[in-house]
Amino acid sequence: MRIEILCTGDEVLTGKITNTNFSYISQKLEDVGLTVVWGTTVGDDRARLLEAFRLAAGRADAVIVNGGLGPTVDDLSQEVAAAAAGVGLVLNEEWLARMEAFFTRRARTMPPNNRKQAMLPEGAEVLDNPIGTACGFALDIGQARFFFTPGVPRELRRMLEEQVIPRLLARAGGPTTIRLKRFHSYGIGESHADALLEGIEALAPDGSVKLGFRAHYPQLETKLTVRGASPEEVAARLAPIEAEIRRRLGNFILAEDDRTLEGEVLAALSAAGGTLSLVETFTAGQIAARLGPLPGAEAVFRRAVVARDPADLAAAVGLEDAPALGPFSEDAAAAAARAIRAGSGASHAMAVLIALDEGPDAIDFGGSIYLAIATAGRLETRRSRILGGREWVRLGAVELGLDCLRRFLTGLPVNERIDFEKT
Amino acid sequence: MRIEILCTGDEVLTGKITNTNFSYISQKLEDVGLTVVWGTTVGDDRARLLEAFRLAAGRADAVIVNGGLGPTVDDLSQEVAAAAAGVGLVLNEEWLARMEAFFTRRARTMPPNNRKQAMLPEGAEVLDNPIGTACGFALDIGQARFFFTPGVPRELRRMLEEQVIPRLLARAGGPTTIRLKRFHSYGIGESHADALLEGIEALAPDGSVKLGFRAHYPQLETKLTVRGASPEEVAARLAPIEAEIRRRLGNFILAEDDRTLEGEVLAALSAAGGTLSLVETFTAGQIAARLGPLPGAEAVFRRAVVARDPADLAAAVGLEDAPALGPFSEDAAAAAARAIRAGSGASHAMAVLIALDEGPDAIDFGGSIYLAIATAGRLETRRSRILGGREWVRLGAVELGLDCLRRFLTGLPVNERIDFEKT
């Protein structure tokens, strides 16, 4: 099935907003094994919209139109869809009632403008939008089925998931139970992961499992799409493959599906009744900022201290009289972690000290990272070196710190080599 | 002039990477008064690329093609461009020599693959890429002039600025000296700014100044595009208008052009020979993380302390024996700022304490922000309330803190009301 995504709106066309809806839709379709072959973007212009609808109707089997369902005069999707299909617009009384109820629940009167949102092309099938006033709909134009969706991202996402994808899968035929399984890792690059997972798709019969990656430094997402006739069949196919992926990627998998690295760290600390304090230098509070605002962090996150200068840092963690913390080293990190742990009464403490290279920022600019994690009875330290410019070092050090914490808390080696390190 | 942007590549089409190049190109063209009327995205597929080139050649005057200039077999732009134009591919000896020198400078031998990047359609005009091996080029296909650009963002950006835009402006005719002036503000919404700047375009003759906005919460960017026959004419037209914008937006302008809020704060502290310490709660180190990693911050940024619990916070800033810091208040913020200033020896200290609402995250979830900035002889405090969900509160509080610091350091009122506050 050839699918086209057609994004509308002056704000998207002129770059005033970045079109994240396009990549979101495209990715979601890929995740269920559907393939987008064409993308089109046009503004709020009747003639160009009509031309875009006609072109898409001629070359695609299914078209997802995004945007243009709002109440204002520049929202043209229904009107142009009707023109392209050669039908009129009719008031959908049911949707009008839904909108009126929507406003009533919010103690407001529906503005007359919004009535426009209930005018649909004759013969259109309604696609429910339980969280907004834009009415989605599906309609045949030429040989293609068009699915009209709202531009508001959270409304689009829900409608895509609940209304559009099931209809597309039904039209595509074949097994329609599909599951997306995701593994998040830190420390292996995409080509390395690809090599480690060679042959994984062949463990399932006849192409029912598809492997993919999405790299967003410093993390890598490994995705498995599994298809089958029923949830039971999908689960049975997935089980041995996910076990094999866990075996091959091993300690590098930091979380699965919707879970996050910082969420796993917080969960492990919460489960152990632990509390955490942090010492940072060049990362300047970014490790703390990943953990500190999470729901539940108020019971776990005890204290973070940031300083750039070794003497300032020593004073900030109460080590004025001890040997200085500079130049930074694993010993200095251990001393800083122990000091903040003692000073704050936390069960766990981590210090991440970074000695930046001298000179201007450049692609080979690097930093040496000295890390220590301490509890009452245990200390682990690590030295790492990351190149790639100031920002790359900063991002890498934040992730390295959080991942070492995860490893420490879950009994995995803190010192396993990663692909991003230079020696 | 009708301009089309044609993005190529499977990674963009499948949503594996978000297409930020599209919005970047579109916005840059808008900024110089050029208008994009159509956007197309296709994958690395010969037949579809050829079809896309033919459609664009038939409806646009100029087409910017992005991607497909790399050395691998799925980079098809030169080949398909030649086919669409009905010409052959010829080796550009000059570019081949440039590439060989590029690799030699890096002490590497050019892989044979890369030779492909010097094969250009016959009659193509080279568009220089001083920072990569992908050779840009321009070529007529049908009635349209096509500009082929690399997919690597930093290479695209430079080529667009130096090679493509000047050629487009020359083709468009009219005054070709164009200047983009930008003002960054915090605290006024887009519609409020629009109202404040009503009539501003009319201060310049015959449409030579265009006003635009780009909102990215919590900041708003106000953009002026000024056209004229010469740099002197542009400067003369811009001068009274930028003065008027500074007058109308006043204290809300936090930086201009490429400068940033955190950069201005750091510059003001550096100029005064000052140093800074910070106390944070729910923002959890994010204010520190905006300032701490900047070049030059090592001489200014003294210390940051983060805690979520009032008693922990009191201990962390050395206030164990003083009145407790909770519940948070302006007085507590003042005590915390004074304590960390004294403890760290900084000339300036700011504390941002946040009392979050109870209950689950929702659109009306809010937080009360208590802020204090202290020096040896001066203390300013502020109370603010922001609604919109946990993340909205966090982002707003980070920006509010940095902006209050800017105001404090530059002699502006710290307590001026902003549009995002609720009372």
Write a brief structural summary:
Two copies of one chain form a homodimer. Chain A has 13 helices and 17 strands.
Rg from alpha-carbon coordinates of chain A: 27 Å
What fold name stands as the CATH topology of the largest domain in chain A?
A: Molybdenum Cofactor Biosythetic Enzyme, Chain A
The CATH C-level name of the largest domain in chain A is Alpha Beta
Instruction: Note the quaternary state here.
Output: homodimer
Estimate the strand proportion of chain A.
25-35%
Helix percent of chain A reads: 25-40%
Based on CA inertia axes, which overall geometry of chain A fits? elongated
Q: What distance separates the N and C termini of chain A?
A: 49 Å
Tell me the domain tally of chain A: 3
Q: In terms of topology, how is this protein built?
A:
2 copies of one chain form a homodimer.
Chain A: E1 3-8, H1 10-13, H2 20-31, E2 36-42, H3 46-59, E3 62-66, H4 77-85, E4 89-91, H5 93-105, E5 119-121, E6 125-127, E7 136-141, E8 144-149, H6 153-172, E9 177-186, H7 190-196, E10 209-216, E11 219-228, H8 231-249, E12 253-256, H9 261-271, E13 276-280, H10 286-291, E14 301-306, H11 310-316, H12 330-344, E15 348-356, E16 366-374, E17 379-387, H13 390-409
